[in-house]
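Dear U.,

For the methods section draft, I wanted the exact inputs and outputs in one place so we can describe them consistently. I've listed the two proteins in the order they'll appear in the manuscript figures. Please don't edit the token lines directly; just add comments below if something needs changing.

First protein:
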Amino acid sequence: MWRWWSARNKANDYRKIINVAEIQSSILYYLSVFEKLNTTNKLVAKDIKSSWKTPPDDTYKINIDGAFHSDSRTGGWGFVIRNANGEVIASGAGNISFAASVIHSEAIAAYKGLQHAAQLGMAKIISETDATILADALNSMLIDGSSIGSINRQIRDFMHFEFSSCTVSVCNRNCNKVADSLATYGAFVLESGSSMLMSQVPEFVSVLVSGDLP
């Protein structure tokens, strides 16, 4: 309501009128920021004891994360794919030249990870994110009418047609440090629009991977 009221006041003052998609993207951004701050506050004690969990046998887990710069509307994405033994099968990171919101960058990360898993012939997948809003969007039609509704529908269709089993789960941020570091690397280090795919993980996150194992 605050973002809508702000847009209305600007229109009444004959300033630049922002469209519906821009208002939606702005709302999604602030919702995501609030969600991450709120989740962090509630899970401080839980995070100390929580750790990344291996997927079931014959299933691969893709941890995904996105980074977003609200001022420049740029960002990064990262993912890591691991098997039931916790071994890294593949990972990736990339720079996003334009991102509508933090949820948009998270969705791009999810799509990139799923695409790579399909290329490797994986059939049973768990896609794990620390963004509850994204998980809800991929498990329903919650924000299909927003500016990132198109990529959400694309991801859901891809999950349905490319895998025999594909679910989306939510983890706390303490369990998603590898993907978070890769997304940050994509946003800050890689050149605009570039990406890299690896059969393992870069050395700078190898310690985080080891820390996830029992």
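Second protein (the one for the lower panel):
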Amino acid sequence: MAADSPCDTGAVARWLVEGARSAAQPADVLKQLCEQLVTCGIPLWRVSVFVRTLHPQVMGRRFSWQLDTGVSISEAGYERLDDDIYRMSPVVHVFNSGMPLRRALAARDCPIDFAVLGDFRAEGITDYLASPLLFTNGEVHAITWATLKPGGFNDAHIAGIENVVAPFARITEVYGLRRSASILLDTYVGHQAGERILAGRIRRGDYEAIHAVIWLSDMRGFTALADTLPPGALIELLNSYFDCQVPAIIDRGGEILKFMGDGMLAIFPVASDAADLRGACGKALAAACEVRAKIAAADALAGVGGGDGERFGLALHVGEVLYGNIGGGNRLDFTCIGPGVNLAARLEELTGKTRHPILVSGEFARHCAPRVVMRVGEFSLRGFGTRQPVFALAVGTG
């Protein structure tokens, strides 16, 4: 192909406008885009997409295609915002200016005004273009194009690339919105509840009855701390406290449903067979033991504790719960209710009175291995007509 021959990327642009339907995932979109552009005669070596995300821990994601290795995906945390190399990069320049930036690195007089350009030149990159991806809400993201071709991109190559940037931005925005919706639901209502909501289970009154291990915990002495600690310190304390619990639950297949001040409601869903029920109880117990150890060892929680020195109370129960949409008008909550949740709440109240930080119901104890739990006694629980058997973890458990 002659150096100035046109690169007709019209078909590629139309493929993007029509939704890139042959690609199932964002990485597939980038892979197929780059392969089609190479077929059109554009000498791409590496193409990277930088998209900032709405995520509590991840600042942004990078999708990078390379001619010889395909597509890789990486994430950057918010600490990158303090990294001088990142802040002084061409990509951030594009984020801030909303304008494209090109550096013809093969030219002797090409300015190396960003430190990373020296690295690119050392790799053999002869031309580099950073294009803004302009979203309809005003956000600016970026895609970069690099080549190893002697002499770099010609005008036809640049025109061919520019022809696909706007339709690619639309595809990127659609995938970004989907991911943001999923992340927000995962963050605020939990993964399984989020999947149900995205599947359309959003009408008030939609529910399902599920069998689950119910986890209900709270912090000892929180009310007194809330009256004495500054707001910032109180929030930091709660976050440290929940950091001791959430990973242990999530790692074992549990679902965090709700934070209620210092309290937390979680479930471990159970299938219909007895083996799965025993497994769910075992996972909940393992999580409880891990949480107990972490809370006891957490220096940040040194000021927390009841009169018996325990820092938290936890109740575990097995029962049927109603899992669904409850609320008024267009303000709904996707949560659990039912007698099982009520029993767990009453058990949690007993943890301080019995001086056992972890209590389990008789129904939960039935599915535990021998000698894992010990009987504490029978108790009259508010809202229940018969006395309920209550068990604690046996000495040495965990």
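Candidate sentences for the figure legend, describing the second protein: The chain is about 40% helix and 30% strand. The CA atoms of residues 263 and 375 lie 25 Å apart.

Thanks,
Y.
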